[in-house]
Amino acid sequence: MTLSLFHGALRPKGVRRLLAAVAAGVMAISAVLLAPRPAAADTPWLNVSEDGYVSFSVPAAYVQANAGQVSQVVIEGNFGPSFSWAEFGLTRRGDAWSGVLGPLKPGLYSYQVTGDDTKSLKDPTNSAGVASKPRWSTFFVPGDSARLLADAPQGQGGKVETLTYRAKGDERSALVWTPPAYSAKGAKAYPVLFLQSGDGGSATDWLDLGRAKQIFDNLSAQGAMKPMVVVISGGSGPEDKELKDLRKAVADKFRVLRGSADQAIGGVSEGGTQALRAALSHPGQFAYVGSFSGLLSESVGRANAEAINRHVKLVRLYTGNVTDPAYNATNRLTKALDRARVRYEFDGVNPDAGANWNAWQENLIDFVPRLFRTVPDHGPSAGHGQLEGEFTPPAAGTTPTPFVSEDGFVTFETTTEFKDAQHVTVWANDAPGGSWLRVPMTRDGDRWRVTVGPLDPWFYYYKFIVDRVSIKDPSNPTKVTSEPTWSGFFIPGDRARLLSDVPAGQGGKVESLTYRSTVANQDRTALVWTPPGYDPNRAERYPVLYLQHGSGQSYTDWAEMGRAKQILDHEFLDGDLVPMVVVMGNGNVSNFNRELLENIVPAARARYNISSDPSQQALAGLSMGGGQAFGVLKAYPGQFAYVAAFSAGFGSSTGVDVAAINNGTKLLRLYVGDQTDFVYPSVMASLPTMDNLGIHYEFAGVTQGPHGWDVWQKNLIDLAPRLFKR
């Protein structure tokens, strides 16, 4: 099935062919699946499953009433690579815009609903909001890696209250967390941490997005932090005078220790910069300083080093990966501190997050337990790496795109023709499991640019969406015949070895086979893979696999998108594949059974040394092609001893000759993606149907990923070595 049918607001290419196929019984998809029950006004728009899949269902009537008529609806949220902000397109099905994304890693996610790029809405069914971002909502995906972000048991947490004070003649406010044992009338005084938000941020961001209260509550309950008072300020962060006023207000109202040895400061982004500046410029104020993605640019002279080292017990630096603007700044700062001989610690490069709250939550979890006490570990966090020098993509317009770094960061860039565009994104299969997200691009002179990653080794495809119009990247020479606006790129690595090109001269050949279609009344083409060493005169004819595409696709897709040649080449060279011929035909016809048996098969036999013995013939396909494989199985049981369907249901059980299927079929194997694959319910419903009929089959289990090539490539990798071995 062409991806454009199921990704929100993309043109529904192939819908007519799909509906015709359904009517013909080629493929059974329930009406409920195509038109889900409309969401009532009080029905939650968001549902999070126990295994981290997130379902959205947004009533179309609500969108129209509050945003007007729209052509597309997306969920904007921190779902992208490295938790970057991205857009997840919803599909209009019946009375709702809906979609499923996941599995998401444990953690906190924020989102808003947006129609036609600019019409943003708050989810009215989700009470978890963000005070500084009125249209945002949040949800939490639980899991062991996010246990410190979960709410502490009732009654075990600290208390957050608002502190109002005056600074520079104006009334200001801050949030103050006090530990569970804190008493305003008690004799004990506590050390204090001043925690700042970034430029333009709010103190409430540390609660709504940073999960600071949960982090403090859980660390406190575990005895993993020194009991302390935490003062959270927002905005652009306090300047020297403002900070002095804030410290005085805290000391006047709360039982805190006033000496510099019992004072710490930290912050995110510009707040981290100001924390560093306050501690390094005036080293007698704070004994502990943490910079989370700070951007300090001032040089540090040796004259200050002695005072800093004497008064400041801890300077700890944090940065995300190369998508964090602080990455290069941190690289420069560490060199400056080294030259000045200022003692500091570096938490290492966070490989999985950029400049966002997911990274800063981890930074806070690492930083707080180090305050006001001696700790044995001064190295980087587990899994964090070294700075490898500054990250500098090629200058605009100097290289084909995308530019892929050795560690999997990908820089996309448009040409100059879109300099007047208003909204540009890059749409790619870079979400969990290979789902499709649109990552916003930013202006870079007269071009648009963005760096995403790190992406796992695999094959990726993408296009630009410019003011809601799909655009091919003209700087990328790759092409997809059935999707003219798509381009591809490959990230090498062990995980993607079977999708890579084999060394020149070692693989099989792919040739075009032209045949006459009496069904379509035209000449048509198939692609045929022959194995290395193929002998047209071999006495024993080769077994043959007929491999079919989906709706809206064609015979070129298994080669251009499915990486069929690379997969077959590798598995043959690895010794996992029986030498066979693979025929990739054109299945876009009104009667596939006739097209296959009367046109494709005879043409392949006439040109290639392949067997006509049913035990040496296999048939497989994806989506519509899987439905076609089931159709042939039912109409001609035993004609193909090996049959497989990728992301396709069995369909109607009427008139099925079970005995003939079982007697004539050596392998019948079913595959499906996960909950993000729209045919998942249909395929899962097929299993008890086939069980009740008594059909012998194998279910390969759920392949993580959507109704897309990431899943079908894995399905072919699994299927091909199983053929012609029974």
Q: What would you note in describing this structure?
A:
The longest helix has 16 residues, at 592-607. With 726 residues, the protein is α/β, with parallel strands linked by helices. The strands form 6 sheets. The protein has an 8-stranded mixed β-sheet, sandwiched between helices. Residues 1-40 have low confidence and may be disordered. Helix 15 links the parallel strand 33 (642-646) and strand 34 (667-673). The chain contains 17 helices and 35 strands.
Outline:
The protein is an alpha/beta fold and 726 residues long.
Question: What's the arrangement of secondary structure elements?
Answer:
Elements: H1 15-23, H2 31-34, E1 46-48, E2 54-59, H3 60-67, E3 73-77, E4 86-89, E5 91-93, E6 96-101, E7 107-115, E8 119-121, E9 129-130, E10 133-141, E11 159-167, E12 170-178, E13 192-196, H4 205-208, H5 212-221, E14 229-233, H6 240-253, E15 263-268, H7 270-281, E16 288-292, H8 302-311, E17 314-319, H9 326-340, E18 345-349, H10 357-367, E19 403-404, E20 410-413, E21 424-428, E22 437-440, E23 442-444, E24 447-452, E25 458-466, E26 469-471, E27 487-491, E28 509-517, E29 522-530, E30 544-548, H11 557-560, H12 564-573, E31 581-584, H13 592-607, E32 617-622, H14 624-635, E33 642-646, H15 658-664, E34 667-673, H16 680-693, E35 698-703, H17 709-719
Parallel strand pairs: 13-14, 13-15, 15-16, 16-17, 17-18, 30-31, 30-32, 32-33, 33-34, 34-35
Antiparallel strand pairs: 1-2, 2-6, 3-4, 3-7, 5-6, 7-8, 7-10, 9-10, 11-12, 12-14, 19-20, 20-24, 21-22, 21-25, 23-24, 25-26, 25-27, 28-29, 29-31
Organism: Planotetraspora phitsanulokensis
GO molecular function: acyltransferase activity, transferring groups other than amino-acyl groups
Pfam families: Esterase
